Amino acid sequence: MSFLSELWKERSIKIFVLSLFVLGALPLGLKGLQYGMDFTGGTLIQVKLDKKLETMEMQTVLTVLQTRLNAYGLKDISVKPAGQEYIIVAIAETNPQAVNQLQSLLGQQGKFEALFNGQPVLSGNDIISVISDPQKGYGVRGVTNNYEWIVPFLLTNDAANRFAQAVAGQCTSLQGSEQCKEVVYMFIDRPENAVILINRTLYNEEKSIPEDLDLSTSTIPIEDLVKNSGEELIVTDTLDNDTLASIKNKTVVIRQGSFDQKLLEQYASKVVAKSKAAKYWIINGLNLENIVHLTPGITEGNPITQPSITGHAATIQQAVEELNRVTILLKSGKLPVSVSVGSVSTISPALGADFLKYSAMAGGFAGLAIIGIVFIRYRNIKIAAPIILTSFSEVFLILGMAALIGWQIDLVSVAGIVAAVGTGIDYQIIIIDEILRKEQEAMLSIVAKIKKAFSIIFMAAATIIFAMFPLIFLGLGTLKGFAITTILGVLIGLLITRPAYASIVNKLSTK
């Protein structure tokens, strides 16, 4: 009877061959490998939460962020928690302008408010839906010297009635106009318990703001604007003791680079440094979206169920971007916590392709090194060949399992594969060295020696698996890839390839 025929009688060999087909060849042939951002290119964004979240709250945050990114029209999105205070967002997008827009979306809490006389009269919870029908006003249109964008939305009947009651009788008619002098301010992520701290130069530039936040000849004094947002305004050029005392335990909003931020952080509960993204800095500082004049009909108690947010931009592209941003924030809803964008790393598709090529080359060189070292160590093809066969079979099975469960292969996963295969070779060497040992255990049978080797292997494998589990369940971001591929490799070796290897060695030893 031939060696192969005898070998095929072993159950471990049958399991090994069947696994190569079912867990390796079939998944790779039918589904193929999914490559992570390291190999395909994309952007990794770290989002920091302002407090630790429990499971239910974290799931809410993940759902809202996922909804925002889906609404943006992206594919290949991954939104995963990293501990209780961080979220890692991976997206298949590398365009710098698009990435900046996504950072803005991810970094906003999305809390909508409408204020009248400094008091909230509407909130995001009052919105039933955003109306995206151009026939009902949604979209961008050209106006004098710029572009206007409009986002209408539908209110609940209760909210419409509450709003009508809040503004009832509050109308000072403007001459020759169907509008009232009184206005409603609409915000997304209005700073709470905040002090707006500006220097005199900025104050003089923005002491009067156009009522349409753009080109209107009618203006609103900055003092009234801040007061009606429910905040406090301090105009100063120096951080004297009185100023520092007045900001104690409050949120301070400043223009980026205008004051000593580190000094402010010693007194304020939070310091927010805003750039001049809008035409007027105060608009960005307050996160003001719209100023709407009341109409006599509303102040007579007639509820309106379809208000809108409007804005202006210099170009049609900017108008479309603002339209999309506001639409997405209103549709996705409010996050339960404040968030901020941390580190952002981008890998171009060309660089990712290079990483994949170099990883494959490194794997090939590592394989050659393994072959060389094993031959040098044993100088026996009957011993070396099974070790090499088993090692490459493990890589094949790990990749097949990754394809089967839809796990993306990235650089960290490759490191896990290398670690798993490396420990696998160690275990095979333990088995062969036990068989070749000729001292006091020379009288033990081959089977007994293999059993002794496996007792060592089981303990070592259990140690590795238990060491990897925290990296999966504690949510430590990209380290999950390393942990999962390492555990897969160890289990494949323990349950499939190592028993097959032991059977091959056992048969060869009896020849």
Describe the protein's architecture and organization.
The protein has 511 residues and is of the alpha+beta class. The chain is 51% helix and 20% strand. Among the domains are: 3-37 and 348-509, Multidrug efflux transporter AcrB transmembrane fold (Up-down Bundle); 191-286, no CATH class. It is built from 18 helices and 20 strands. A hairpin with an 8-residue loop joins strand 12 and strand 13 (219-221). Helix 15 runs antiparallel to helix 16 and helix 16 runs antiparallel to helix 17 (446-473). The protein is elongated. The model has no long low-confidence stretch (mean pLDDT 81).
What is this structure's SSE topology?
Blueprint: H1 3-8, H2 11-30, E1 34-35, H3 37-40, E2 42-49, H4 55-71, E3 78-82, E4 86-91, H5 96-106, E5 112-116, E6 119-123, E7 127-130, E8 139-143, E9 146-155, H6 157-167, E10 183-188, E11 194-198, H7 200-205, E12 208-210, E13 219-221, H8 222-227, E14 232-235, H9 241-246, E15 251-255, H10 261-265, E16 270-274, H11 281-286, E17 288-293, H12 296-299, E18 308-313, H13 316-332, E19 339-347, H14 349-378, H15 381-405, E20 408-409, H16 411-436, H17 446-473, H18 479-509
Parallel strand pairs: 1-20, 11-14, 11-15, 15-16
Antiparallel strand pairs: 2-4, 2-19, 3-4, 5-6, 5-10, 7-9, 8-9, 9-18, 10-17, 12-13
Helix pairs in contact: 2-15, 2-18, 4-13, 14-15, 15-16, 15-18, 16-17, 16-18, 17-18
